[in-house]
């Protein structure tokens, strides 16, 4: 029996309409696929009108300044990240940052713009006692009193009930943003007039798959929304991959999705001092872990930093000894630190003497393996010990700098056997060399260290510039931004209208 006869039989028995109804009921219930011939003419959704906006010319001085609040690291309405390996000192550094802002004192280096700030430290991995130890140890070291804080510091611990979960992600629900918490955060930030909120660590502030770029991007951008709505700066502290090479960590080493760094407007990176750096500066290997450097690996809205900011963790005794015989607690406190300068105590006369010796002896070699190495002359003139690792690194650094600025020059010429070798000759003579037959180096081109030259560190600093001739930290004459902008933010107004009355609350101090 053929299929056609089966349908014919069904049609005779049931009727044509009943068979067609049964076929229609068995069809796929989804949308019908149009014929391919008709797809080109299928109706497209009507697109909204597009209009290009002519640029309105503005005088440069009329454009509002970027609302920095702490150096060029943290800005109102923006989210920044801080990335470091475990036990580097990021929490201690973050607490010192908070105290610097709360007091309005720039003891870490970066300037607190516009006076003291109201700061909210929300730590999700330390208890209140441990946070208090670091806070009070930092305050003790820097001579900060309760009056200096002035009620501008707010501290919460996730281990003592102040949990924070901005978003969650499950296989059934997907990504879910905790919108009620977002609203509560904005309202509290506005009511307390918080200028800076730090969340440490970021991973404990959500329940989202850490490697999901889309989800992490959405979470960080929600934090950016909070920063914009509350007109504050927000910092998210985060760990880096354990596989990252110590001393060479960048923001790319941040653990999990790369969208975290991409969504942050600044990315402060902490690197512990390496063994080679410690050796070159004469620091014991067991002490080098107390030194770390910080630099912004991403900030594209500030002048570029010429070098990292170095810090040293000094030990501070809290003096909380009890009657039970146990010793008092000590904590590490972050203090700025300047690496030893290879040109410290090096004067223009030293360079002149080195040039004269090179010119007198001749056949001075560039290779440290040669017995005619130029470093022997530098060591003699500066009274340095070539057998000492720190002194030898200083010698190499000085030679490298003098070659770079042209005071010395490296040339390739045949040695006594006719083989090409690198030699060192005098480049541009110093001004006080008395040699009129050779081109003298300009003062701005020869870095000699403290001493008679106009580009010496002491003289440059007296002119308001650092030893490299640049303006100190870019911020001596940087205009201070107002604490609150003149224009109102509609997001702020919406939240302020919903703020509950708190009775006779004390008036907030304006900074």
TrEMBL record:
Which residue stretches does the UniProt record annotate as biased composition, category Polar residues?
39-51, 469-484
The record's section on Pfam families has:
AAA_25 (PF13481)
| Disordered: annotated segments | 26-55, 430-511
Q: Where is the composition biased (Basic and acidic residues)?
A: 435-446, 494-511
Q: What InterPro entries has UniProt attached to this entry?
A: P-loop_NTPase (IPR027417)
Report which superkingdom the organism of origin falls in.
Answer: Bacteria
UniProt protein name: AAA family ATPase
């Amino acid at each position: 029996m053929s299929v056609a006869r089966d349908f014919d039989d069904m049609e005779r028995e049931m009727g044509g309409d009943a068979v067609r109804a049964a076929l229609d009921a068995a069809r796929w219930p989804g949308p019908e696929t149009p014929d391919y011939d008709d797809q080109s003419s299928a109706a497209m959704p009507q697109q909204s009108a597009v209009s290009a906006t002519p640029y309105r010319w503005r005088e440069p001085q009329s454009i509002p300044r970027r609302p920095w609040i702490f150096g060029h690291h943290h800005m109102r309405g923006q989210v920044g990240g801080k990335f470091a390996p475990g036990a580097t000192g990021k929490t201690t550094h973050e607490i010192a940052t908070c105290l610097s802002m709360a007091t309005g004192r720039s003891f870490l280096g970066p300037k607190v713009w516009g006076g003291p700030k109201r700061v909210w430290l929300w730590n999700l991995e330390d208890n209140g006692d441990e946070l208090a130890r670091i806070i009070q140890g930092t305050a003790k070291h820097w001579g900060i009193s309760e009056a200096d804080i002035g009620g501008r510091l707010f501290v919460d611990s996730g281990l003592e009930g102040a949990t924070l979960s901005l978003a969650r992600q499950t296989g059934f629900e997907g990504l879910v943003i905790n919108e009620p918490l977002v609203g509560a955060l904005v309202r509290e930030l506005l009511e307390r007039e918080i200028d800076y909120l730090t969340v440490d660590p970021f991973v404990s502030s959500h329940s989202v798959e850490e490697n999901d770029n889309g989800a992490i991007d959405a979470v960080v951008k929600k934090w950016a929304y909070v920063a914009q709505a509350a007109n504050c700066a927000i910092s998210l502290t985060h760990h880096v991959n354990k596989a990252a090479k110590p001393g060479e960590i960048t923001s790319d080493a941040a653990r999990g999705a790369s969208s975290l760094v991409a969504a942050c407007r600044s990315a402060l990176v902490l690197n512990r001092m390496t063994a080679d750096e410690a050796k070159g500066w004469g620091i014991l290997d067991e002490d080098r872990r107390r030194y770390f450097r910080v630099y912004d690996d991403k900030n594209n809205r500030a002048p570029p930093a010429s070098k990292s900011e170095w810090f040293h963790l000094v030990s501070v005794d809290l003096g909380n000894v009890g009657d039970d015989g146990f010793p008092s607690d000590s904590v590490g406190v972050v203090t700025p630190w300047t690496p030893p300068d290879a040109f410290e105590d090096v004067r223009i006369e030293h360079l002149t003497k080195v040039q004269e010796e090179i010119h007198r002896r001749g056949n001075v070699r560039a290779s440290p393996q040669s017995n005619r190495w130029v470093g022997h002359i530098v060591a003699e003139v500066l009274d340095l010990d070539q057998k000492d690792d720190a002194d030898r690194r200083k010698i190499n650094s000085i030679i490298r700098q003098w070659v770079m600025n042209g005071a010395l020059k490296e040339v390739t010429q045949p040695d006594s056997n006719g083989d090409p070798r690198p030699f060192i000759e005098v480049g541009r003579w110093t001004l006080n060399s008395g040699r009129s037959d050779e081109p003298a180096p300009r003062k701005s081109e020869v870095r000699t260290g403290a001493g008679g030259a106009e580009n010496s560190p002491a003289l440059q600093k007296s002119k308001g510039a650092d030893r490299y001739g640049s303006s100190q930290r870019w911020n001596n004459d940087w205009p201070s931004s107002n604490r609150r902008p003149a224009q109102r933010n509609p997001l702020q107004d919406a939240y302020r209208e919903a703020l509950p009355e708190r009775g006779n609350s004390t008036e907030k101090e304006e900074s």
